[in-house]
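FORM 12-B: Structure-to-Sequence Request
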């Protein structure tokens, strides 16, 4: 099962962007993430729509932070990326007529919803500048 690593990858980029002297091009960011610049532009556009980054076209242009890291939380970025589930655990529905499967799915779903609510509450309390501080200590 493939993990959705967009959140950690975007956090990585935002912290690097804070340490740069100027804008980061989509090509530069793509190099950091070992991905295609088109993927970077699509992802960064989601952040721009929410006011976390800005972009300038042309020579000398690129992506820059629009807010200080202290004003952006993990939750903010999670929401900007599409608010997908933080867990990749899936429920089965192959035998939807089975009472046992329905009971298992209900139990798992309840636990996952509770765990996700706790995790997202914690995400709201962690600003990106705290991640930057931790990266300097490592």
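FORM 12-B RESPONSE
SEQUENCE OUT:
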């Amino acid at each position: 099962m493939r993990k959705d690593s967009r959140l950690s990858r975007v956090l990585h980029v935002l912290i690097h962007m804070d340490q740069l002297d100027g804008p980061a091009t989509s090509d530069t960011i793509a190099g950091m993430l070992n991905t295609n610049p088109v993927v970077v532009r699509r992802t960064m556009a989601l952040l721009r729509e929410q006011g976390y980054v800005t972009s300038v076209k042309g020579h000398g242009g690129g992506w820059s932070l629009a807010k200080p890291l202290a004003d952006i939380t993990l939750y903010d970025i999670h929401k900007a990326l599409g608010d997908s589930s933080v867990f990749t655990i899936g429920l089965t529905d192959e035998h939807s007529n089975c009472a046992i499967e329905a009971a298992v799915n209900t139990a798992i779903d309840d636990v996952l919803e509770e765990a996700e609510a706790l995790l997202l509450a914690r995400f709201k309390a962690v600003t990106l500048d705290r991640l930057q501080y931790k990266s300097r200590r490592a």
